[in-house]
């Protein structure tokens, strides 16, 4: 057995020290040259009643995503559970107050507070920004989801019904709301042209951008309406964002379809609107079809335009017909709606 002489011990010590120094130097070089992890900055461009709340809530179930609601809404929704800031994120009050004039300040604040997640994002509607500053949002974003609803008439009716009930999302156990609305063809036309113009503005800006974000196109009917489609949709979104599978598109707390039947059944003047609006005639329900309520047919024999009180057996039908005629018009597209 060889004895460990002082000279041999010194040689071993020097060799070990050299090895440790080499490993440390290599690790330092690796860290110095390794790129900083690029966090994804997501903007969900959509419109009311397009499934955007459902998509936001599904993204919030992913552990590597910080998904905010509507930070650029004209109202201060920061504390809203549905539309507010996620994961206890807070932003400077002054930056928030100036969000319309100087959106870059709020964008930078949101981007900094990533909570070590890979993705930070929020949703944006056409009314949330000055369109002249759209480039600011597109420059900030690395990823853009364009979510649209193909059936614009059904979307508009859904907006009208949400305005009538003041309920913009339904969850398991929520109370049911059975409102009826009248649709003004001119207001629908104003609203639909406005939304189409916004999408066209976005597409032109993307085409001209020097470094445009990646874009994923989704539609409510194809990707979100049916529960069985949502899992595939979330897998596509996760691949697009560069994160591992982790979202739970079937989580029990997610919002549910607010109007489980054809929304056109809630339009009192559908017969008239369908004659003047091609979009209404082409509208198709994103649910199992059922017979549309027809005031003239379903309360046959009732003097539904008259003012003479009917006899008792027909009082209920008469009241229903009169209620249809008094149903409110939608505010969207009207004076001051922007």
Write a concise synopsis of the structure shown.
This protein is an alpha/beta fold. The chain has helices at residues 6-33, 52-60, 93-97, 103-112, 134-140, 152-165, 185-208, 220-224, 227-241, 270-276, 278-282, 295-298, 315-325, and strands at residues 40-45, 65-67, 119-124, 143-148, 214-219. The protein has a five-stranded parallel beta sheet, sandwiched between helices.
Write the layout of secondary structure elements.
Layout (H helix, E strand, L loop, with lengths): L5 H28 L6 E6 L6 H9 L4 E3 L25 H5 L5 H10 L6 E6 L9 H7 L2 E6 L3 H14 L19 H24 L5 E6 H5 L2 H15 L28 H7 L1 H5 L12 H4 L16 H11 L13
Parallel strand pairs: 1-3, 1-4, 2-3, 4-5
In words, what does this structure look like?
The chain has 13 helices and 5 strands. It is elongated, with a radius of gyration of 28 Å. The chain has a domain at 40-150 and 191-241: Rossmann fold (3-Layer(aba) Sandwich), CATH 3.40.50. It is an alpha/beta fold and 338 residues long. The protein has a 5-stranded parallel sheet, sandwiched between helices. The termini are far apart.
Q: Tell me the β content.
A: 5-15%
How many strands appear in the DSSP assignment? 5
Instruction: Give the overall average pLDDT.
Output: 82
Derived from helix and strand composition plus strand pairing, the structural class reads: alpha/beta
- Multimeric state: single chain
| Count of discrete alpha- or pi-helical segments spanning 4 or more residues | 13
The fold-level CATH name of the domain at 40-150 and 191-241 is Rossmann fold
Main sheet: strands, sense, barrel: 5 strands, parallel
Global morphology: elongated
In which order are the strands of the major sheet placed?
A: 2-3-1-4-5
- CA radius of gyration is 28 Å
Task: State the end-to-end distance.
Answer: 91 Å
- Name of the CATH class of the domain at 40-150 and 191-241: Alpha Beta
- Order of helices and strands, N to C? HEHEHHEHEHHEHHHHHH
CATH architecture of the domain at 40-150 and 191-241: 3-Layer(aba) Sandwich
Helix content class: 40-55%
Low-confidence stretches: 31-36, 288-310
């Amino acid at each position: 057995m060889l004895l460990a002489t002082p000279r041999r011990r010194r040689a071993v010590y020097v060799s070990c020290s050299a090895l440790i120094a080499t490993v440390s130097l290599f690790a330092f070089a690796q860290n110095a040259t390794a790129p900083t992890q690029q966090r994804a900055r997501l903007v969900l461009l959509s419109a009311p009643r397009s499934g955007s709340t459902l998509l936001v809530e599904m993204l919030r179930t992913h552990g590597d995503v910080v998904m905010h609601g509507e930070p650029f809404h004209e109202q201060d929704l920061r504390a809203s559970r549905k539309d507010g800031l996620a994961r206890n994120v807070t932003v400077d009050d002054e930056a928030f107050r100036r969000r319309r004039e100087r959106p870059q300040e709020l964008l930078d604040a949101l981007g900094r507070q990533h909570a070590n997640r890979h993705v930070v994002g929020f949703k944006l509607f056409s009314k949330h920004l000055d369109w002249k500053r759209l480039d600011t949002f597109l420059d900030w974003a690395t990823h853009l989801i364009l979510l649209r609803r193909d059936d614009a008439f059904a979307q508009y009716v859904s907006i009208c019904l949400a305005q009538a009930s003041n309920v913009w999302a339904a969850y398991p156990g929520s109370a049911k709301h059975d409102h009826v609305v009248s649709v003004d063809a001119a207001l629908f036309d104003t609203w639909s042209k406005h939304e189409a113009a916004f999408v066209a503005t976005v597409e032109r800006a993307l085409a001209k951008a020097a470094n445009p974000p990646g874009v994923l196109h989704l539609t409510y009917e194809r990707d979100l309406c049916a529960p069985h489609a949502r899992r595939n949709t979330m897998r596509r979104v996760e691949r697009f964002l560069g994160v591992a599978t982790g979202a739970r598109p079937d989580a029990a707390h997610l919002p549910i379809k607010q109007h489980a039947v054809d929304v056109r059944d809630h339009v009192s003047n559908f017969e008239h609107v369908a004659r003047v609006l091609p979009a209404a005639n082409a509208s198709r329900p994103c649910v199992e079809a059922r017979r549309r309520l027809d005031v003239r047919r379903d309360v046959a024999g009732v003097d539904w335009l008259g003012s003479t009180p009917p006899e008792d057996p027909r009082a209920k039908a008469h009241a229903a017909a009169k209620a249809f005629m008094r149903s409110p018009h939608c505010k969207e597209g009207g004076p001051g709606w922007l």
